[in-house]
Structure prediction request, 375 residues.
Amino acid sequence: LAAERPLKDIRDEYNYPKKKGIKDECSRLLEASTMKSRRGFAIQRLMNAMRQAHADGWFIVFDTLTLADDRLEAFYDNPNALRDYFRDIGRMVLAAEGRKANDSHADCYQYFCVPEYGTANGRLHFHAVHFMRTLPTGSVDPNFGRRVRNRRQLNSLQNTWPYGYSMPIAVRYTQDAFSRSGWLWPVDAKGEPLKATSYMAVGFYVAKYVNKKSDMDLAAKGLGAKEWNNSLKTKLSLLPKKLFRIRMSRNFGMKMLTMTNLSTECLIQLTKLGYDATPFNQILKQNAKREMRLRLGKVTVADVLAAQPVTTNLLKFMRASIKMIGVSNLQSFIASMTQKLTLSDISDESKNYLDKAGITTACLRIKSKWTAGGK
Prediction:
C-alpha cells in the first residue's frame, strides 16, 4: 500500500524531511554563484527603488520589526503575518488618499523587507523600508513644538505591528519629502543637526543584511537558543521557508525608462551590460528581455523557432570543463565565457538611453565598488 503512494505525500504526512543529495564541486559552485546573483539583483532593485522614490517625491520610512516573547506562537502559526502587515500599511496609505481599501496600492505604496536572525541572542527580527506617496492619516512632525528636536519616529505607524515592537523612523536626507512637507530637521543627542546624507545611505544599510549568511542556516544551528526562543530549533522544520526570505512588493524596483522605441540591437546590448557600465545592469537586462518578449508576441511561431538559440546545460558544461582546467580555475573560466559589455562596446543609441535614464555610474555619482552580491 505504501508503495502505491507518492513518496512526497508520505514525507508531508509524517513531516519527514527529504534526504539531501550529494553535491559535487560544480553543483556547489553553481549554487553559490546563483545565490550571489540573486542577492545582487535584490540589492539593485532596492537601490533603484530608492532612486525612483526620491525622483517622485515619495516618503521613505525605515522600520525594524521585533517579536515579543508572548507573541512568538501567534506569529509562527500565521504564515501570512508579514503579508497582512504590509497590506494593512498599504490600506492606510490608500485611506490617506481617499481611496477604497480594496484598491491596489501598487501605485502609492511599496515595501522591502529583510529578515535577520541575530547571532548574539538568536532573536529573529525584520528590517523593512516603506515607500509611500502619501503619509497615513494622522502623521505629524514628532518634533513640532519640542524644544529639542531629537525624534524621528512616525506616530501613525507605531503600534501597527501586532507581534511585538516596531520602530518606524523617517529617513531624512537632502531634499527629502519630509522637508518639502515642512517637517523640522532633527538633531542628535548633543543637540547638533543630523548630518545630511544621500538617499542611498539607507539602501546601503539594508544591503548589508541581504548579504549576510543564510539566516535559515544560523537558526538550524540553534544559535542563541539558550538566551531566547528555545523552541525555534525544534519547530524549524514546521516553519514556512518563506519566513527567512527577502520580501518585496510585486515589480519592486523594476521601473525604468520606457524601451518601446529602442532598436532590437540596442535591447540585446542592454541585456549584456556589465556592472561597470551601470549599477542597475540586472534590472536593465530583465526589462530589455521583457520588451523583446512583447515584440516576439507579434511574430509567427515558425519565425521564433527558427531564431531560437541552442540551449546549453550550464551544469553539464561545468562538469565537462572541470576535467580540462581543474577546480581552481573553473570560476574564472566560467566568468570569461560570459560576455559583459562596457560603455566603449555599445552603440550611441544605448549610451543615450543610459544617459537619459540617469543610471550610469557617473550620473549616480557612486563608485562601482558599491556592488553587493556580485557583478
Notes: The CA atoms of residues 291 and 310 lie 21 Å apart. The chain has two domains: 57-248, 264-370.
